[in-house]
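Run log, item B.
One chain of 121 residues. Sequence copied directly from the ordering sheet:
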Amino acid sequence: QVQLVESGGGLVQAGGSLRLSCAASGVIFSINAMGWYRQAPGKQRELVAASTRGGMNYADSVKGRFTISRDNAKNTVYLQMNSLRPEDTAVYYCNAGIATYSTPYNTNTYWGQGTQVTVSS
């Protein structure tokens, strides 16, 4: 069974930094896109950053502040968040497109449980 586990969330002051990690485990054939989404209360889940075959992309609101990176050997994706703002407060979810040996040519979407990021004024 494939699982995604996030870590690194917490409470920080505005202007501070956090580094989120997401590790995929299980019997994995390949990992395609990996990314981070976030959802604040009363708002839709939105894409924050993604690492795809075509490169990296970011939401306009985080460009210049957040950086996504991957360690393929560890099946892990990171999100370095700098210059955090109160509006960054949300639950951050890891997302990955993963193919297993059961369906090696079919990519399924997996979600982590989420990690809370709270930025105080």
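Observations after the first pass:
- The chain has a mean pLDDT of 94.
- DSSP finds no helices and eleven strands in the chain.
Flagged for discussion on Thursday.
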